Every structure is written in C-alpha cells, then in structure tokens.
Amino acid sequence: MRRAIVMVLLLFLPAANAYVAPEDLPDEPSMEFAGEVLLTLHEGVWTHEAWSSLHENGVHPLRVVSPTELVGWHDGWIKSPSYTVSPSPEAVWKTGLDGRRPCCW
User: Out of 19, 21, 33, 59, which residue is the most buried by the measure of CB atoms under 10 Å away?
Assistant: First the structure.
C-alpha cells in the first residue's frame, strides 16, 4: 500500500510543478517618445563638444546628415534651446549595392 501511495504521488508531482502563478511585473516607464530623431542646430555646425553634450540630454548620436543636422536616438523628452527636434527621415532600404537583387537569390 505504501508503494502505491508513493507511485501516485510521483505520478502527479510533474503536474503540480507545472502550474506557474502569474507574476506581478513592475510598471515600466512609457517609451512612447523613444526613437530616432533629427536634430538641427540653430547656429554653427556639429562639433565634438556639441556631440558630447547630447549624452547629457539623453540623446545618443548616430550619424551626421549635414553640417547642421544629426540623427540620434533618444529615450525620453528632449528640450534644448540650441537645436530643434523633428522626426527622423525614413530610410530607403535596398537589396544590393546598386539597388538590384543579388545574383544568388
């Protein structure tokens, strides 16, 4: 009889361990304003000092589009009197270097 009870318990043990209670996940900050932006300087050109100061404002510079425009990634509000923030232009994706399909596809 003792063996039968142990066997029944061992039979239902995986089913008891399979139940996972729902976790209470912490509230994460809203990321609705995160993404690529185009930053346009009001005066001058992008220098090393201006590029480095972007990190203090929560912007991670990605590339320079023109001497006065820069594409960056931000994860919150950006406010600075020295530049204007606008949405980043859409990228044009090409399949090959000349825009044609590669020969191997």
Answer: 59
